[in-house]
């Protein structure tokens, strides 16, 4: 992994993006394609290896198209052919959504994907850009507003350092350091379904997955199976 000293240009940027997940990487590429100097800091040394998001809709597909990554995204995703359905152990439908066809943005209404694979595509795309720098294992520890923008204080393998930027964008998830440092509150609307979604990779000889949760309702998924099976 390259150190900060090998990225002296990273000490100033037009935009400082915090978080190198799909949102942060996509934003950095969009800004980079428009000629802006972008630095991303990510507190984790490596990308998270398990899928969390598993579907994107046609509006997100159009964003990927604007990133210039249409072929790459189509190669790692699979359009939902008909509908997405959850059933309980008695075969009763709990949730059914028609995801067939093409949406108004010209992409499938919904597409399945694996988040780690998607992040690799986005990471390679920004790595090829001279005006986008990604610094991993670097944590934002402070923000100071200036007349021209902000000064962000960071801590990484080489110790503490600062970066000046015109704009700061927090793309660092539910446990956002940016939101905490700015004192921005968040309203938690809680989970709106009465089941828990998990991801599991099945061997070819295994039967459809069934998982059980308190108070003992078992559910299996119906049609629209992606590359990973999900139950609750």
TrEMBL record:
<feature type="domain" description="FAD-binding">
    <location>
        <begin position="13"/>
        <end position="200"/>
    </location>
</feature>
<protein>
    <recommendedName>
        <fullName>FAD-binding domain-containing protein</fullName>
    </recommendedName>
</protein>
<keyword id="KW-0560">Oxidoreductase</keyword>
<dbReference type="InterPro" id="IPR002938">
    <property type="entry name" value="FAD-bd"/>
</dbReference>
<feature type="region of interest" description="Disordered">
    <location>
        <begin position="213"/>
        <end position="232"/>
    </location>
</feature>
<dbReference type="Pfam" id="PF01494">
    <property type="entry name" value="FAD_binding_3"/>
</dbReference>
<dbReference type="InterPro" id="IPR050631">
    <property type="entry name" value="PheA/TfdB_FAD_monoxygenase"/>
</dbReference>
<feature type="compositionally biased region" description="Polar residues">
    <location>
        <begin position="222"/>
        <end position="232"/>
    </location>
</feature>
<dbReference type="InterPro" id="IPR036188">
    <property type="entry name" value="FAD/NAD-bd_sf"/>
</dbReference>
């Amino acid at each position: 992994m390259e150190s900060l000293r090998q990225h002296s240009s990273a000490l100033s940027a037009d935009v400082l993006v915090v978080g190198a997940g799909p949102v942060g990487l996509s934003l950095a590429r969009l800004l980079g394609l428009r000629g802006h100097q972008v630095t991303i800091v990510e507190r984790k040394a490596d990308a998270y290896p398990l899928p969390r998001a598993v579907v994107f809709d046609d509006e997100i597909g159009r964003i990927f198209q604007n990133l210039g990554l249409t072929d790459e995204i189509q190669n790692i995703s699979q359009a939902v052919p008909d509908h997405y359905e959850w059933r309980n152990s008695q075969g009763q439908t709990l949730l059914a959504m028609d995801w067939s066809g093409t949406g108004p943005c010209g992409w499938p209404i919904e597409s399945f994907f694996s988040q780690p694979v998607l992040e690799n595509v986005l990471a390679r795309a920004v790595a090829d850009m001279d005006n986008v720098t990604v610094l991993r294992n670097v944590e934002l520890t402070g923000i100071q507003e200036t007349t021209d923008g902000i000064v962000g204080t960071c801590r990484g393998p080489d110790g503490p350092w600062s970066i000046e930027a015109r704009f700061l964008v927090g793309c660092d998830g539910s446990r956002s350091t940016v939101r905490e440092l700015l004192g921005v509150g968040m309203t938690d609307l809680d989970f709106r379904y009465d089941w828990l979604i998990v991801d599991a990779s099945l061997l070819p000889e295994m039967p459809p997955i069934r998982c059980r949760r308190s108070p003992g309702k078992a559910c299996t998924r119906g049609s629209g199976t992606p590359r990973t099976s999900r139950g609750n």
